[in-house]
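Hey,

Quick one before I head out. I ran the complex with 2,3-dihydroxy-5-OXO-hexanedioate overnight. Inputs first:
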Amino acid sequence: MASTWGDDPVSRDLTIIDVRLTPILVADPPLLNTQGVHQPYTPRLIVEVVTAEGITGVGETYGDTTYLDLARPLAEKLKGRQLTALNGLFTLADRVAVDASQVSDAVDVGGLRGVQTADKLRLSVVSGFEVACLDALGKALGLPVHALLGGRLRDAVEYSAYLFYKWESHPEGVICEPDDWGAALDPEGVVAQARRFTERHGFTSFKLKGGVFPPEEEIAAVRALAEAFPGHPLRLDPNGAWSVPTSLKVAEELRDLLEYLEDPTLGTPAMAEVAARAGVPLATNMCVTTFAEIEEAFTRGAVQVVLSDHHYWGGLRNTQHLAAICRTFDVGVSMHSNTHLGISLAAMTHVAATVPGLEHACDTHYPWQSEDVLTERIAFTGGRVAVSDAPGLGVELDRDKLAFLHRRWLDDDGALRDRDDAAAMRVADPDWVTPAVPRW
Ligand SMILES: O=C([O-])C(=O)C[C@H](O)[C@@H](O)C(=O)[O-]
Ligand SMILES: [Mg+2]
């Protein structure tokens, strides 16, 4: 009998016969964070899996050399395997050796990305392959990715406007793509940027990337946002730049205005100390970025919201596992974002649509990205992305755009192939060194 859920997978040839890895460099505006400034171009990796029937699925993940070095052997191991063998991806990845010099348990080693364990590096690579397999499987079966994940609980996913302190342009002489967002270096600039976000995309909640200026200035910016957008959810995220006393001081000043305070300080013990007295929920994408870190953080009450990132956590199904653990401990869940393109936004939207109790708007950098590898950009309506019911992720790769961005990567002498915000800052300020933490 014909299945009402699409073709029977058993009758299909779902063998992966080819895996293509395309590293690219995508334009990034001069966004400031506690480490420095974004490079003019950021590396990403586009993963394509091709089945025996000629179906292609796409995925996206970090494109820095460390990730590429792991992705290449994993791609080889995947050939000849079944699209449906998603659990096997983790076993395959375990067999890929990780360069020990890239591994560290320090929570600030990855800059803004938390610990950099061998497992996390592998999972970040697996995520790109898992999404590509799910996209291909969905296309083969005529089902959207959310259906493969158990079905959507909502028809649109809400995102927040991700506000950054920002220069007007990259330093003089730096080859870059111009942007029309303008500078944002004080409360007025931040509010103007927020208005642009609402005009362009309809966002109604706002996150300010902090840790750039002394806390008093960032408190003033949040106050200005609260005045300009009364009653709207606001967050501030200094990426662990503050000491415990500074975090508590900021919490005292802003507790009535913030939906949550994100990673005010570094590491679970310090976060637990702040959480105990802050009077405002703490969110993290730094002290809990692996399953191994959950127990200590949750039992100490260090975090009230985990900002999942399907890249860190090993894909969409692991994100669902994380969300289930969070539910068990009555910890909220939402989503973190780094510079990413439409493939990852589509993946985030599919998984977010399946997570029960998603009460906070997810982060996304996508509005900052003027370039993409899709034939059509993904649109925000009222700050939301509609959940696609088309087969797979519901996106289409634009091969010309992919080739163009890959050419940029090929032409780079290596200076931009590993994101380094401190090095980008040194172009403007030769004395700049990554600030020691706590910075304030
Ligand atoms: O903590 C966060 O939300 C991030 O680390 C997000 C991004 O990495 C952001 O800070 C950036 O790219 O500058
Ligand atoms: Mg954060």
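The chain has two domains: 9-146+400-412, 153-392.

Talk tomorrow,
K.
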